[in-house]
Amino acid sequence: MNHKFTFEGYGKVRDMFVFSCFTGMAHADVKGLTKDMLQKSFDGDLWIVKKRQKTNTPFKIKLCGITKRIIDKYRLEVVGTNLVLPVPDIAYCNRVLKKIATEVGIDKVITFHMARHTFATTNALAQGIRIEVVSRMLGHTNIKTTQIYAKVTDDMLAKGFDEMAGIYADKYSLAQ
Question: Cβ-count burial of 21 within 10 angstroms (0-12 exposed, 13-18 middle, 19+ buried)?
Answer without folding.
Answer: buried
